[in-house]
Amino acid sequence: MTLFQVVVVVICTALNTVDGFDVLAMSFTAPLVQKEWSLDPATLGFLLSAGLAGMCLGSLFLSPVADLYGRRVVVILCITLVSIGMFASAFSDGVAALAIFRLLTGLGVGGLLSSGNTLLSEYAPDRWRDLSISAMVVGYSVGAIVGGSISAYLIREFGWRSAFVFGGAVSTVLIPLWISSSRAKPGMRWPASIKSCAVSAGPSSTRSPSSPAKTSRRARFSGSSKRAS
After folding, report:
1. How far apart are CA 105 and CA 168, in angstroms?
2. What is the mean pLDDT of residues 85-108?
3. What is the C-alpha separation between 25 and 98, in angstroms, rounded?
4. Is 34 part of any domain?
5. How does pLDDT run across 38-89, given as a tens digit for each residue?
6. Inside any domain, residue 70
7. Which of 57, 64, 126, 159 qualifies as a FRET site for 193, CA 20 to 30 Å off?
8. How many Å apart are CA 182 and CA 123, to the nearest integer?
9. How many structural domains does the chain have?
10. In whole angstroms, how large is the CA radius of gyration of the chain?
């Protein structure tokens, strides 16, 4: 597995971890938002479902764009949408604004989830493809679990808006990391001193001793020799 492929797996897993936090940020802050704005359960449910609706729309409409303009561009676009949506949610002053910004965040998350899975399936080698995709999927749950603990501290010390600021800041930091890592050359490999054991079945072991063209030439030569004799 090349260094470039390892970097792609790590960055995609980190993005999915942040997505897990961003999606559930509204759930972490819901009690305080309901209390501050005196919301009824139906309105609170509307806010909670706005992000999920955005994820659905992002998966449906942003993922096909990657086939036209490339997954690197779409991933950058999705991270930017998530960052803007999280920061804007922190400074929203009403239900309608918060719902729109949560919808915007969900759009980015949905596009990242689908594009990230496809990206890993394309970049990861056959031997490590299943493990790479599993690591990315686990990152979502890790982000939700760790994000809950971080949000509990932030909300207690700085209020519910700080959870959205934190999510937006982490997403913003990942933008230059993804841009720089996606420009790396695919030929970059780990140093030989830390490589794992070589795979016993290499391409040379599966190659036939003679190609079909050589076999046919040998057959024609042997046939002509028999006729001459």
Report:
1. 10
2. 95
3. 12
4. yes
5. 999 999 999 999 999 999 999 899 878 888 888 888 999 999 999 999 999 9
6. yes
7. 126
8. 11
9. 1
10. 26
Q: Please say if the pLDDT value at position 183 is more than 90.
A: no
Encoded tokens for 200: 């016993």
Query: Would you say residue 224 lies in a domain?
Result: no
Q: What is the pLDDT of residue 182?
A: 66
DSSP 182: H
Select from 148, 179, 180 the least CA-distant residue to 166.
148
Q: What's 148's domain CATH number?
A: 1.20.1250.20
Domain of 45 in residue numbering reads as 3-189
pLDDT at residue 222 above 70? no
Q: What is the pLDDT of residue 214?
A: 45
Q: Which helix (H) or strand (E) holds 71?
A: helix 71-90
CA-based nearest residue to 106, from 89, 129, 131:
89
Which residue type, as a one-letter code, is found at position 21?
Answer: F
Residue type for 84, please? I
Nearest Cα to Cα of residue 174 among 6, 3, 4, 7: 7
- Give the DSSP per-residue string, 90-151: HT--SHHHHHHHHHHHHHHHHHHHHHHHHHHHHHS-GGGHHHHHHHHHHHHHHHHHHHHHHH
What are the φ/ψ torsions at residue 179 (nearest 5 degrees)?
Answer: -65, -45
CB 5 within 8 A of CB 125: yes
Does 41 map to a domain? yes
The encoded tokens of residue 71 equal 């997954």
In angstroms, the CA 67 to CA 98 distance is 31
